[in-house]
Amino acid sequence: MIVNRSFVTRLACLTTFPPQAWKNQRAVYELATPESPLEPGEVSQMVWAHNGKPVCKNCYRVGLPSGFSKHMLEFSAERGITKLYEKLLYNNILKADEWVVFDTALEEEWYAQRYMNRAWRFNMHYVSPWDKNARTSFLRALRTGGFDTVLDGMGKYFGLDHVSFFFLGFMGVSEADNSFTHTDVYATGEKGFNMIWPIVIVNGSKPELDIISDDANIVLSINYEHDVAVTMGDWVYQKTSPNDYEDEGQMKIVVNAYVGQIDETNARMMHYIFDGEDPSPFADQFELPLKEIHWGDGHSLPK
What we know:
It contains seven helices and 15 strands. The protein is of the alpha+beta class. The protein is globular and about 70 Å long.
């Protein structure tokens, strides 16, 4: 047996083992960001800064047109939705899991829902189109903001034949304790995506979204960015990060859009994902042939 006496001597001189310096070393897992801003429709897989490897297989950042977050904030404010969130989050006008339909001055019907606030320990509220007028106005706002370019980039990057939105809405929150780790899109044949981008953020806040990496022991915690959509495909597990804006009277509002290629291979699964929640208007959109296609085969968002 050969003994490295030099190493043994050095080890014997240590007053503690492992050395204190080792205890103070922590692995740092940070998201790599492109050197220049993403172009509208540019898709960038989330990768680690230290090794360039994917955080997870189906998590991406997608570039939106410049000023798009502001454009959607104006859309929300015009309908009184931004102001409504102040009442929803700070006046507790809805009970746990309660939802109501409301009108706007623009002859549109929307619904507001206090979502899973006891089970998931946060005060998240959805506001989403209830009738066709509201849904069409949402789609038109996406078009006027330049989202056709985004769908074109995504469709080509992911090799899709056509793309349709199957959910559109806002999510707002001012406090989150521990939330719940879940996946929103799964088993779609890598043709479905959940896109989230902010319209109201709290500058300097702690991270707002936890994404579980392919190594389930490692969690990527990120902040939302204006004009960038966090885009998650099949089996990406995530949750709202713990946060509390209530002391500052502030809140976070994001757009939440589900989009993908609905076809004979996944229409039933897409319907199941969408119809698993109550309420779920427009559930007939998954019937084939599709009533709405928003990119591909000569289609675009409505004018």
